[in-house]
Amino acid sequence: MFEKGFLGYPTTFMLDFVVCALVLVVPLILLSLWLVKFRRQYLAHKRLQIVLGVVLLAAVTAFEVDVQLVHGGWEKIVAKQNLEPAALAAKIAAVRPWLLVHLVFAITTPFLWVATTVLALKRFGANPVPGAHSKLHSTLGWASTVDITLTSVTGLLFYYVAFMK
Ligand code: HEM
How far is the CA of 142 from the centre of ligand 1 (A)? Predict the structure, then answer.
């Protein structure tokens, strides 16, 4: 069941699932920031950020287990395109730099996200309102937002060059 993707390219179910999650996360974060900045809905912002963090972490963990343990690495998924051996090697070499750029953002994002969330939960308390932690939280929050957005953009670019082109 999880062997094939559903977006019409020779991929896997989990790869397509994570691509969809990466596309959805950006507008949901924008919604969360609109809630906090323009509507002052601090509790709604807190809940949405926690749900997004938990869902993303679960999706990416399941995705990693699937790619590494079930499929034996992303190169094996590229091999589903049935290219000649030389063409396959050339494609893998050509798309690897795109993956490395994506990994810079994909690896730093969870650390920033967890730090932002844990500090916010500790320092804003159960009923969050602006206070002494606002300045640091804004800095961490915007850094997390930019990082996840770049994770999403570079992830989609990798998907395009590796599986659609
Ligand atoms: C990774 C998770 C989170 C991100 C990326 C994030 C992001 C942000 C950003 C960018 C702002 C500043 C908006 C502006 O420029 O005015 C903000 C404000 C705020 N956030 Fe978060 N947030 C996260 C989690 C949380 C959590 C878990 C809480 C509560 C425990 C929280 C409570 C607040 C509050 C109270 C403000 C308003 C601060 C103020 O206006 O002085 N946030 N958040």
Answer: 9
* Separation CA 132–CA 151 (nearest Å): 30
The alpha carbons of the chain give a radius of gyration, in whole angstroms, of: 18
152 lines ligand 1 (CB under 6 A): no
Can you say how many angstroms the Cα of residue 8 is from the centroid of all Cα atoms in its chain?
21
Distance CA 90, CA 11 (A): 18
Task: Report yes or no: 76 and 125 within 8 Å, Cβ to Cβ.
Answer: no
Which residue's CA is minimally distant from atom 28 of ligand 1? Answer: 46
What is this structure's pTM? 0.94
61-89 pLDDT, tens digit each? 999 999 999 999 999 999 999 999 999 99
Residue 141 Cα to chain centre, angstroms: 16
